[in-house]
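Example (one chain per record):
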Amino acid sequence: MSALDFLLVIVRIAFGVFVPLSFVAVLVWMERRGAGYFQDRSGPNRCHVMGFRAGGLIQNIADAVKLIFKEDIVPGHITHKFYFILAPTLVFITAILSFAVVPFADTLILGENSYVMQGIPTDVGILWFLAVVGFGVYGIILAGWSSHNKYGVLGGLRAAAQVISYEIPMGLAIVSLLTIYSTVNLSEMAQYQGQLLFGFIPMWGVFLQPLGVIIFIVAAFAETNRTPFDLAEGESEIVAGFHVEYSSMKFALFFMGEYVAMFVSSALIVTLYFGSYQIPWFSTETLANNAKPVVIFLMLAIPAAAYLFNNWMKKNNRSHYNRPNDPRIRETQVYSAVLWSIVVFLEVIFIGFLIFSTGGAGARILVALLQISCFLFKTFLMCFVYVWVRWTLPRFRYDQLQKLGWQKLLPLALLNIFITSAVVVSLA
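Predicted structure:
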């Protein structure tokens, strides 16, 4: 294995592990700020370090310190301590492993070598996700059962019943999608969506499977135990459900596992239905063959975007009343300096690319970076939909989820398979 091969292997693994973990902080921030926005309040804006609040991100650091240093209690009445400790670990690890097969850029071709941009380049694709993500439910059930707490047991039972309500419609929605893509390989699915339908509509799954995407997203909400399907931990009914006996970092693993699962679920929805890393109307080859015009466009667009964002910060990041020596103004000045330093750094890199790059490897790496950015941006928007729904809809009743899964989603998923199969056969 050459040095380049080894480096790219490390980059792929690091992306598959550290990006979901990094998004935990981003999603917790988005959850709090989003909740504040939807409820017409400020959200976290008090916690700071020397006056720097980072828009509320410092609150995440405070929470992390609190959870790390809290006393880790294992209640004395628990007899199966091994399973009690295993449960949060299982939930967290399965969420991380689920992302390993999601492609985040097109296959990178450098010279005669090609590199699949996935944490684990495997052909099983969607089958890996379905196999691994199901183990997360075992962690919830184990947590409720091993807690020897009536609320914990109820939470575990609800999680078990919830699985059979959404897994079947989710699987059937994927069957319809596989009928079109004719592969289980997620990289091939993403490449398929780079084509155009009727010459101008991107062949994304959302256009090919408008009913399937609704079924899959509803099932994905239940998969991640997010409102309105957070029945396993319904605070107003069973206190905290399956994790009622957990504290300190074991609770944090459940907490982080939920947000990692939310990120992975969003990434999979983007991969299956919203074009994955594909930039609409610009295929990989088109971008690679026009790398220099793309760089010139970025050199103009990035400073313009930074200028608008900087003005927005100056307008909004200040106290709402007259305050001498307002620390938020000083905070904004520092952020502006950091922002423009990043812009200057990127501009220098772009100038170097225009001067020294002759296409080939440089253009391919540039395209890969653009596709990674596009993939993360789409995933970020899908994560916002999760937050949007959570603070808009109330929690479903226990029987309502069963009715939705068995009486609504299941017949619709079967109907979707029939229609999709008829269309595919008629066009074959």
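Caption: The CA atoms of residues 270 and 378 lie 7 Å apart.
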